[in-house]
Amino acid sequence: MQIFSSLSPQQETHKSQLMKALARFLPPETISYCAELIMFHKLNLHVEVERKSRYGDYSPHHGKGNRITVNHNLSPFEFLLTFVHEVSHHTAFVKYGPNHDSHGDEWKKEFQLNMKPFLEAKIFPYDLQAILAKHMRNPKYSQSADVKLMQVLKKYDVRQQDKLVLNDLAEGEIFRMKNNTIFMRKLNKLRTYVLCETLDGKMKYKVHSMAEVMRET
To answer: What pTM was estimated for this model as a whole?
Structure first.
């Protein structure tokens, strides 16, 4: 995968510096191409501390470069998906201007287009390739909104493999959220979320099915 047919010595130096910085976060096969994406679109990539509300974001800045942020604690495959997700916000902004729906049809088309080289290169394990191909037919606003995709991504994140998530529990099991002392009972799955209730039955909550939990012992 490549964008540039040739680079000047200055560009080669810039790319080398980018690749060195990206090597900590991306699958090895994607580092060179992602560095070229940054150069081609004149993007400023900032790797941020974990933000619970989002994996990344995009901010257009006329004349000052365009800023993309991605959380530092994502697995390589999640980092790649988030990076391409945010690049697609940029390409949608360039093509359609500031008034398009941020996760509407224009962005979806750009995301599909920008993910195509990675899917065609078959850099993903077979099961992840298959679920990604399905996800990209109608990509959601976040990979966290696609539980099946999140389940497969978890398999390839060494930091997540031993963690218990709500989806792993059977209906009726009692648990508490990580860093929370309130125990709840798992009821029925909705779609992305699971309906849960406090043990006294007074309060019900929708909890993301991939939320990390602690089982009652």
So the answer is: 0.78
